[in-house]
């Protein structure tokens, strides 16, 4: 066990539903070691084909390229309402630098991401 101040926080993923939308809340750091955990959680959620998936990353301290790949794969596998991402400042930067914000639907809060359902319906 590593007991260093620089040791990454373990990745925690929680899944809950709000109406027809599944909210995946992510805490910690998403790197090469933890990205498979997020991938597994998203794969499980997408298997049930929800109307929309909100990935709440507001408590993510680091988002590496492996995490970006997981988000891209999930967005390609999502239908209808799509994948909605709520990044922390630390997660927003790599999403913007890689232009993934052009492929993902990015929101400032979970409330905003959920409000999309109230203002528009998928066609």
Strand content: 25-35%
Strand order in the sheet with the most strands: 1-2-3-4-5
Shape verdict:
globular
Cα Rg: 14 Å
Number of helices: 4
Largest sheet: 5 strands, mixed
| Protein structure class | alpha/beta
Distance between the termini: 51 Å
The SSE order reads: EEHEHEHEH
Total E-strand runs: 5
Mean pLDDT: 87
Assembly state here?
A: single chain
Low-confidence segments: 1-7
In percent, how helical is the residue content? 25-40%
Pfam family, one: STAS
Family: Belongs to the anti-sigma-factor antagonist family.
Protein name: Anti-sigma factor antagonist
How would you characterize the overall build of this protein?
By secondary structure, the protein is α/β, with parallel strands linked by helices. The chain is built from four helices and five strands. A five-stranded mixed sheet has the order 1-2-3-4-5, with helices on both faces. The protein is globular, with a radius of gyration of 14 Å.
Summarize the structure.
The protein is of the alpha/beta class. 37% of the residues lie in helices and 29% in strands. Strands 1-2-3-4-5 form a 5-stranded mixed sheet, sandwiched between helices.
Using brief descriptors, characterize the structure shown.
single chain; 123 residues; alpha/beta; five-stranded mixed beta sheet; 4 helices; disordered N terminus; Anti-sigma_ant; Anti-sigma factor antagonist; STAS_dom; STAS_dom_sf
SSE order and pairing:
Layout: E1 12-18, E2 21-30, H1 35-47, E3 52-63, H2 65-77, E4 83-87, H3 89-97, E5 105-106, H4 110-119
Parallel strand pairs: 2-3, 3-4, 4-5
Antiparallel strand pairs: 1-2
Helix pairs in contact: 1-2
Protein name: Anti-sigma factor antagonist
Family: Belongs to the anti-sigma-factor antagonist family.
Domain STAS: 11-117
């Amino acid at each position: 066990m590593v007991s260093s101040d620089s040791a990454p926080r373990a990745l925690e993923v929680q899944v809950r539903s709000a109406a027809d939308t599944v909210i995946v809340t992510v805490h910690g750091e998403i790197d090469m070691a933890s990205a498979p955990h997020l991938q597994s959680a998203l794969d499980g959620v997408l298997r049930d084909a929800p109307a929309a998936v909100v990935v709440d990353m507001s408590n993510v301290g680091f988002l590496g390229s492996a995490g970006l790949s997981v988000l891209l794969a999930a967005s390609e596998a999502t239908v209808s309402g799509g994948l909605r991402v709520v990044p922390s400042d630390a997660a927003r930067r790599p999403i913007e630098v890689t232009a993934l914000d052009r492929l993902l639907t990015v929101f400032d809060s979970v409330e905003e991401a959920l409000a999309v359902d109230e203002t528009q319906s998928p066609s």
